[in-house]
Design a protein that fits this description.
The protein is of the alpha/beta class and 498 residues long. The strands form 2 sheets. Strands 14-13-12-11-7-10-9-8-15 form a 9-stranded mixed β-sheet, sandwiched between helices. The protein has a 6-stranded parallel β-sheet with strand order 3-2-1-4-5-6, with helices on both faces. The two termini are 44 Å apart. The chain binds 6-O-phosphono-beta-D-glucopyranose. The site of 6-O-phosphono-beta-D-glucopyranose has 3 residues, from loops. One of its GO terms (biological process) is pentose-phosphate shunt, oxidative branch.
Length: 498
């Protein structure tokens, strides 16, 4: 691993994202020894005029680490590594001061061999990305003679449609090279998302099955059981498609659908993801259902007549040899009946079924991303049970005696049971570590981003122009009934329980 001084600069340090995600992730990395105090220093930068201690006090309550033997002592030591600098996002003065402070720290560590590394984390709204990047480029780049690097990390939303995203990309692209830019999609840091390629390409089971001959449909679902909660103003400008589907769910789709990369080099993996995105056909209006939960507009920051969807089901179709004819049903919603993110791969029915038990549901492979990470397969097996109340399928229940009957069962890998005592790292933790290590595999490349916007921009424009309206749904429900009807029409068969 690289050595030498590492400065991590969190811009937007007094904001929500920094407080809830960035600093806690840094703290977890610190507790595991990934941020050695003799090499690392952390700077918070924002407009608010506060002291170092003010910032430390603001974030202290969010630093939780169940892997640490003495969490509060660790938190205190970690907080001592943080210094605050205040300044504007477009003026020279603040960034000159920031550079001075970083350099001071680098000089104080100069007894160490090695280069100096500067990681700028923009926990900021994208409207200020261009000016902040300009300031960093002008005043705050790594100047060490011993080498090292300057990298920037940016968060979604990267634009609002194809044009604005491309504009943003070119503005940043004029200042930094692609290998210096880390576009975070935190879904790519989730344990089971990171597992997808291994699962698909290291298991003989899946190789012959993973195609249109065997798979009937794929559903990728995100549900939250709470509404926009204080983020109404932000959310209303973007809506569920820009907030969740165009990025998080589409990234998952890429990993489910892509061809095997020629190697695990980040560029080769991202090449394959781009190909999938470029093969997606234009979305048809009749394959979209939009919803808005009742009560959404009661939020004072949301306009009374808002047309913004808080729920959407969108069917994507991939035009290639592997996937022609297989619907990818992407579904996301706020204020629903549960909190869950999962991938459900439904296989086709067995031809020439002699057991007459197709009603019990299909073979299905489910990857539950959260909560309670798990992978399980639904299979049909010979039944041991004859308790007709345990299954809602009287026609397929075993009769007393030795008759053959079948039941649907699971082959289950639940992470909490299988890996007891092992803490699954937070998405942000892994991704920040990747930025320090210089591994771009789990970050979105510029051409990927462009292709993702190309898919959704026409639909988003129709929604923005009021040509498509969301259907109201009750808070705590499954979303509009029309969405279930659409999934069923696409071939999805609702399975039972589990
Ligand atoms: C964010 C969205 O990207 O992801 C939020 O902006 C959403 O609206 C969040 O709540 C969900 O993340 P997770 O990791 O809790 O599923």
């Amino acid at each position: 691993p690289e050595t030498g001084c590492l400065s991590i600069i969190v811009l937007g340090a007094s904001g929500d994202l920094a407080k809830k995600k960035t600093f806690p992730a840094l703290f977890n990395l610190y507790c595991q020894g990934f941020l050695p105090p003799d090499e690392v220093y952390i700077f918070g930068y924002a407009r608010t005029k506060i002291s170092d201690d003010d910032l430390r006090n603001r974030i202290r309550g969010y630093l939780v680490n169940d892997r640490s033997a003495s969490p509060s002592e660790d938190a205190s030591k970690f907080l001592q590594l943080i210094q605050y600098v205040s300044g504007s996002y477009d003026g020279a003065e603040g960034f000159q001061l920031l550079d001075k402070e970083i350099t001071k720290h680098e000089i104080s560590k100069s007894s160490q061999e090695g280069s100096s590394r500067r990681l700028f984390y923009l926990a900021l709204p994208p409207s200020v990305y261009p000016s902040v990047c300009r300031m960093i480029r002008k005043y705050c780049m790594n100047k060490s003679d011993l080498g090292g690097w300057t990298r920037i990390v940016v968060e979604k939303p990267f634009g609002k449609d194809l044009d604005s995203a491309e504009q943003l990309s070119s503005q940043i692209g004029e200042l930094f090279d692609e290998p210096q830019i880390y576009r975070i999609d935190h879904y790519l840091g989730k344990e089971l998302v990171q597992n997808l390629l291994v699962l698909r390409f290291a298991n003989r089971f899946f190789l012959p099955l993973w195609n249109r001959d065997n798979i009937d449909n794929v559903q990728i679902v995100f549900r939250e059981d709470f509404g926009t909660e204080g983020r109404g103003g932000y959310f209303d400008e973007y809506g569920i498609i820009r907030d969740i589907i165009q990025n998080h769910l589409l990234q998952v789709l890429c990993l489910v659908a892509m061809e095997k990369p020629v190697s695990l080099k980040p560029e080769r993996i991202r090449d394959e993801k781009v190909k999938v995105l470029q093969s997606v056909l234009p979305i048809k209006d009749e394959e979209v259902v939009l919803g808005q939960y009742e009560g959404y507009r009661d939020d004072p920051t949301v306009p009374n007549h808002s047309n913004t969807p808080t729920f959407a089901t969108v069917i994507l179709r991939i035009h290639n040899e592997r996937w022609e004819g297989v619907p990818f049903i992407l579904k996301a919603g706020k204020a629903l009946n549960s909190r869950k993110a999962e991938i459900r791969v439904q296989f086709k029915d067995v031809p020439g079924d002699i057991f007459k038990c197709q009603k019990q549901g299909r073979n299905e492979f489910v990857i539950r991303l959260q909560p309670s990470e798990a992978m399980y397969m639904k299979l049909t097996v010979s039944s041991l049970v004859h308790n007709s109340t345990s299954l809602d399928l009287p026609a397929c229940v075993k009769q007393p005696g030795l008759e053959m009957s079948t039941v649907q069962s699971e082959l289950d890998l639940s992470y909490r049971q299988r890996y007891q005592g092992v803490t699954i790292p937070e998405a942000y933790e892994r991704l920040i570590l990747d930025t320090i290590r210089g591994d771009q595999q789990h970050f979105v490349r510029r051409d990927e981003l462009k292709a993702a916007w190309e898919i959704f921009t026409p639909l988003l424009h129709r929604i923005d122009n009021g040509e498509m309206k969301p259907i109201p749904y009750r808070t705590g429900s499954r979303g509009p009934a029309e969405a279930d009807e659409l999934s069923a029409k696409a071939g999805y068969v609702q399975t039972h329980g589990y």
